[in-house]
Every structure is written in structure tokens, then in C-alpha cells.
Amino acid sequence: MNSPKQPLTPSQALNRAAALCARSEQAPGDIREKLIKWGLSANDANQVVAQLTSQGFIDERRYAKAFVKDKFAFNGWGKFKIAHQLRQKGIPTEVIDDAMTVIDDEAYRQRLTELLRAKWRIVKEREPRAAWAAMMRFATSRGFETGIASECVKTVSRLDVEDY
């Protein structure tokens, strides 16, 4: 039979968490949860997080910027969805606002337009209002602002008409 796992000591947990943080950016809240899962008390977990932060293994600003870049580039998320997820991870608003500046406005519109072109191929045969609504729902579900979404939907549907 397997014996139950022994909880980690704060020193062991610090080493394990430092190795994890060295591999990829981590949110302080995520590390705190892992530490508690590994058997540390909340107080010990907070101390380990503070130590990792002071040693530069954890940095909220660096994490937020990396998160924004990744979710925008690889997941195609808009600013609303990215900001919401960062707030869920306990990242302060001023850090989120600063991290959002890594997204270039032109690249933001271009990415949404690319996503909408792919969606347009699926919905363009629908009644025009239904197609418009589907495109807007898609864009807003990805976290893009309605104003920008509306502009990009117009652009994509206009390009399709011009192709004929």
C-alpha cells in the first residue's frame, strides 16, 4: 500500500516553488495555493511567497505582462477577458493596466479581424442580422470591446462583399 505523502517543510517547499518559478512566470496567488496543497500552513505559505518575491522568483508585473502577451497571441483573447482572468488571480488593477500596454492597438484590431474572418466563413450564409449578432457575440465572448468589435465586424463583412 502507498503511505500517505508527508507534507513538505517550508524549506523544501521554497526550493520546489523556486524551481517552478524559474521555469515559468507564476502568479503569487497560484504559488500560495500550491504551497498550501503541498501541506504548508497559510502563514508558512505567505512567508515562502514573500521570500520568493524578495529573491525575484515572483514578480506580479512581469507575470502580468507575460500573461497578457500569451493570452493575446496564442488564445486570441481581448483585453476584457485578459483583465478579468488577472483579477481572478489577485493581480492589482494598476498592474493589470500597466500590463495591457504591451498590446499594440493596431495589432489588437488586426488579431480581432483575423479571428472574425474565420468566424465569418461559418456564419455568412445566415440572415444578415443573425450573422452580425453571431459575430458580435463571438468577439465579445473573446473579451473584445463592443466598439472595436463592431468596427471589425463591419470591415470583415464588407471585405467579403467586395470579394464577389
Quick overview of this protein structure:
The protein is an all-alpha fold and 164 residues long. It folds into 3 domains: 45 residues; 43 residues, Arc Repressor Mutant, subunit A, CATH 1.10.10; 59 residues. The chain has 9 helices and no strands.
| Rg from alpha-carbon coordinates | 21 Å
Total number of distinct structural domains: 3
Number of strands: 0
Beta-strand residue percentage: under 5%
In DSSP terms (H or I, runs of 4 or more residues), the helix count works out at: 9
Shape: elongated
Largest sheet: none
Low-confidence spans? none
Fraction of helical residues: over 70%
How far apart the termini lie comes to 70 Å
Looking at how many chains there are and whether they match, the oligomeric state comes to single chain
Give short descriptive properties of this protein.
single chain; 164 residues; mainly alpha; Arc Repressor Mutant, subunit A; 3 domains; 9 helices; elongated
Please explain how this structure is put together:
With 164 residues, the chain is mainly α. It has three domains: 10-54; 60-102, Arc Repressor Mutant, subunit A, CATH 1.10.10; 105-163. It is built from nine helices and no strands. It has helices at 10-23, 28-37, 42-54, 60-73, 79-88, 93-99, 105-123, 128-141, 146-163. The protein is elongated, with a radius of gyration of 21 Å.
SSE inventory with pairings:
Layout: H1 10-23, H2 28-37, H3 42-54, H4 60-73, H5 79-88, H6 93-99, H7 105-123, H8 128-141, H9 146-163
Helix pairs in contact: 1-3, 2-3, 4-5, 4-6, 7-8, 7-9, 8-9
